[in-house]
Amino acid sequence: MDFKRAAVVGSGQMGGGIAHVLAASGMSVVLIDVKKEFLDRALAAIRGNMERQADKGVLARSDMEAALKRIRTSLKPEDAGEAQVAIEAVTEDLDLKKGIFSRLDAACPPEAMLATNTSSLSVTAMAAATKRPSRVVGMHFMNPVPVMKLVEIVPGLETSEETLQAAKALAVKLGKEPVVSKDFPGFISNRVLMPMINEACYALMEGVAAKEDIDKVMRLGMNHPMGPLALADFIGIDTCLYIMETLHRGFGDSKYRPCPLLRKMAEAGRLGRKAGRGFYEYPDR
Which residue among the candidates 119, 120, 122, 198 is catalytic per the annotation? Predict the structure, then answer.
């Protein structure tokens, strides 16, 4: 399918980034959220990110203005009715996501593809909330979406081969590199990444080393661009905790038990960059 019309439900950092790359690829996009202030904030962020791309010569200013004109906003999922693909990018809450999929299923044309940007939850469970499970697929974009090249494509139990190939083709159209993962908790990325972050938290909690040294080992010794504790701050401590809980619950294996320090950090409101403090302090967030 040659996708030309898209809808994105959820205008946070991920949803806004997905709308950005869809519009930049030439597609018309309706960006949907529950409050106008969320949508206004998202549009301002998209413009700011596109202007940075224009300043770097990645995006021509004329193309930037054309892309921005291709984005409209709405407060109702039902306004996704003309979309050929609708991508859900809301909070990692399975019941919330299933409710959105049910509404999108009722609003979108029967041939439309429905995708979720979930980072760890069951694509199969979301597909079961629709009457078109063969047309539902996971498309897990990486943050920040306009920069990161990877998209995890996750077929659910009943996702058709046609839908899988269409999702891969869409990722390529957006300038991304698709990889396919089976529908297991955390897929590939977070099944590998989050236990590393969790183990770094254990190392800090147990006094193995200072946070700066734990991060330095991974940056200078393993050539990671960012240490695991700094990365946890970037992702969000609450998000890391939630994904570890999903892995622990999904696999029932003690190796995925969230570090108590990670839980304490979340309880204290030390959520990372977005809160101005996490493992590190961010006074100018």
Answer: 119
